[in-house]
Write a structure and sequence with these properties.
The protein has 370 residues and is of the alpha/beta class. The protein has ten helices and eleven strands. It is a multi-pass membrane protein.
């Protein structure tokens, strides 16, 4: 009787050890996958990005170089259309990407080119306050790094939705400077939503501000892209999908009107224009050789392959490079592989996973009997 009890005790102890070992393996795999997909992948991907070099090195010309990051269309979800899981996933992705980029790349100034929020155009005062608090957490930055924000149509509404209250509410939080100068480089942040050209009070004020600072400009940043017929001439991995590139743009909705674009180019005479709004990348050369860069969305919610622009700027030269963030489908595929591996691990532990040869032999026997 004592021998039977001893044997049973040993079997029970062995079973407990096997289960503990399985649990340890499962916890280790889950922890490793989470660590990789939610933290390490951002460092591995963004680490490959390098600042571009200007044609004339700053130390040779006696000019200072400014490191600037440009991103667009973060679309922080609100209380109406934002499912909690979608909100959690997308905002965590943007927070990790932004904080990793700040740590690795050390920019001096960051520009966000509109559509900071998804529901700013209709959010209540309390919802607006909640969205702003989340934005400040996601895009927190050291004091020596400047953050400049341009208003987009989702922040203050399109022309017919825009109001003085919404503009003032936005400006109270972000205090956008129309003209911002640093290291001899002038930036103009344009409220392109107000460039409707119909003579409304807000539109007239916006045009008057642009005219007032037009004598000092050599760079422009705005939300709406300048006028173009479509994205037909755009190319690259993060351009609009092929089936969407030939769809004509609606003036004042997908892009500025032809008239407003011509006014901006004439008043400001920029050497570079960066814009958002379309969620896709594009390069357009306008009259007098002005280059416009459409910056893709920074969020997985709008694209599988988000990115941002890195710019090395001097008063006379600029050089741009694109930095891609981790692809969302890469992260999802990693999770799927991990789930499959865990399933195999559990099946093997409980001896429910037969060897391929034995499985094939049993299958052939069943086929012969039938």
């Amino acid at each position: 009787m004592a021998l039977i009890r001893l044997g049973f005790g040993r079997q029970h102890l062995c079973l407990l050890r096997r289960r503990s070992l399985l649990l340890s393996k499962l916890i280790a795999v889950v922890f490793a996958v989470l660590l990789f997909c939610e933290f390490l992948i951002y460092y591995l991907v963004i680490f490959r990005c390098d600042w571009p070099e200007v044609k004339t090195p700053a130390h040779n010309s006696g000019q200072e170089t400014l490191k600037a990051m440009f991103l667009a269309d973060t679309h922080l979800l609100g209380e109406i259309r934002g499912h909690w899981l979608d909100k959690l996933r997308r905002e965590w992705q943007m927070e990790r990407a932004f904080q990793t980029a700040l740590w690795l790349l050390q920019p001096e100034v960051v520009f966000i080119l509109g559509d900071i929020f998804d529901e700013g155009k209709w959010s209540s005062p309390q919802a607006w306050a909640d969205d702003v608090q989340r934005f400040q957490k996601i895009f927190r930055h050291p004091r020596h790094v400047l953050l400049k924000v341009v208003a987009g149509n989702h922040d203050i509404g399109f022309h017919y939705q825009m109001s003085t209250y919404k503009i003032k509410r936005f400006e109270k939080v972000f205090n956008p400077e129309r003209l911002f100068s640093w290291k001899g480089i002038n930036f103009v942040m344009v409220n392109s939503v107000a460039l409707e050209g119909d003579g409304c009070n807000l539109c007239s004020e916006a045009e008057a501000e642009i005219i007032e600072i037009s004598h000092k400009l050599n760079c422009s940043r705005e939300h709406f892209p300048l006028y173009r017929r479509s994205d037909a001439n755009c190319s690259g991995d993060d351009a609009a999908p092929l089936e969407e590139r030939d769809i004509p743009f609606k003036e004042r909705y997908d892009a500025l009107s032809r008239e407003a674009s011509q006014k901006l180019l004439w008043w400001l005479r920029p050497r570079l224009v960066l814009s958002g709004h379309t969620h896709s990348a594009c390069e357009v050369l306008h009259g007098a050789g002005t280059m416009e860069i459409s910056v893709p969305s920074f969020s997985w919610r709008n694209r599988n392959n988000p990115s941002f622009i890195m710019g090395m700027l001097t008063p006379t030269e600029y050089a741009l490079a694109k930095c891609y963030l981790p692809y969302e489908n890469t992260v999802l595929a990693t999770y799927c592989v991990a789930v499959g591996f865990l399933a195999v691990l559990m099946l093997a532990h409980f001896k429910l996973l037969a060897s391929p040869l034995l499985f094939g032999w049993n299958l052939l026997r069943k086929l012969k009997t039938t």
